[in-house]
Write a structure and sequence with these properties.
- The structure is a single chain.
- By secondary structure, the protein is mainly α.
- The chain is 66% helix and 0% strand.
- α2 packs across α3.
- The protein is globular.
C-alpha cells in the first residue's frame, strides 16, 4: 500500500473514533507506525492538502 493511501486509511479510521490499537490490527501495522503517521499529519502528509477536521 502506498504511504499516502495508508495515511488516508489511518486518518479516516481515527476520525471515525477508532482507537490506535484497532487501527493497527486492522491494517496489520504496529501502533508505533500509526502514531507516526498521525503525528506527521500536519508536518508532512497534509501540507497543502485541504483536509482539516
Amino acid at each position: 500500500m502506498e504511504k499516502w493511501l495508508m495515511f488516508m486509511e489511518i486518518y479516516q479510521m481515527k476520525k471515525q473514533g477508532f482507537k490506535i490499537r484497532r487501527i493497527a490490527r486492522k491494517l496489520g501495522i504496529s501502533r508505533t507506525t500509526v502514531y507516526k503517521y498521525l503525528e506527521n499529519r500536519q508536518k508532512k502528509w497534509l501540507s497543502g492538502w485541504p483536509l482539516h477536521g
